[in-house]
Amino acid sequence: MVLIAAFCGESVAERGNNHGFEHSNNGFQGNNHGFEHNNGFQGNNHGFEGSNNGFQGNNHGFEGSNNGFQGNNHGFEGSNNGFQGNNHGFEGSNNGFQGNNHGFEHNNGFQSNNHGFPRSLRAIRGAGI
């Protein structure tokens, strides 16, 4: 096992398979392949982050503190967006897999996204269909 200087000051008996940086109080601690900041893959944004955007804050990693897979957002998070707050991962604090939200949250999952024909039916009716 190779000990990294970042682990100084923490007393953990077995850190396990640490390929990146780790912190304490995490589910799956010691198997963090991401970045140290209380998380594995915290703030690893593979998408676009800002406001009024599609794919805002597309976090494919792990976000939060003291968690295993906290805030693993595979969707799109922010404001005024399609797929806003689509959290496919785990969100919370001091938990492994807390708040496994597979849907859409933040009042904007497909908001006003009409998959049917709310107004075009008039044209179909007028055509005699």
From TrEMBL:
Low complexity: compositionally biased ranges: 25-50, 94-111
Region of interest: Disordered: 21-119
Bias (Polar residues) ranges: 51-87
Protein name: Uncharacterized protein
Source organism: Didymodactylos carnosus
